């Protein structure tokens, strides 16, 4: 039971970070010219929402039924999320603090993924 509570806490923390990042960029997206953001859209959060939703749903399913199949599905969803987020951690049009915040979310998700053992 402790593992599931910890897993849910971790998921909620990651979702909070994602929402904070989305909110921050939504409020600051008008500061740069569109041509400066090619490849690093100010609406980048819309590009990762499917993966974030899939990770959340997989986490919920795994929390409710910690079967090996649900564990593997959760791990795959976490990896998909990391894969889609990584390019945004290197966007030169973002400030260093913005890139660090994105990288921190990636690192947290990777640490959770590394700690997850499916049996």
Quick recap:
The protein is 72% helix and 0% strand. With 119 residues, the chain is mostly helical.
The largest sheet is: none
Looking at the structure, what is the overall shape? elongated
Instruction: State the helical fraction.
Output: over 70%
**Proportion of residues in extended strands:** under 5%
With helices defined by DSSP (H or I, 4 residues minimum), what is the helix count? 4
Query: How many strands in all?
Result: 0
Structural class: mainly alpha
Succession of helices and strands: HHHH
Mean pLDDT: 78
CATH architecture: Up-down Bundle
Number of domains: 1
The CATH topology is what? Four Helix Bundle (Hemerythrin (Met), subunit A)
Rg value = 15 Å
Q: pLDDT under 50 segments (min length 5)?
A: 30-38
For this structure, what is the CATH class? Mainly Alpha
Task: Explain what this protein looks like in three dimensions.
The protein has helices at 2-28, 44-64, 68-85, 96-115. It has 119 residues and is mainly α. It has a single domain, classed as Four Helix Bundle (Hemerythrin (Met), subunit A), CATH 1.20.120. The radius of gyration is 15 Å and the shape is elongated.
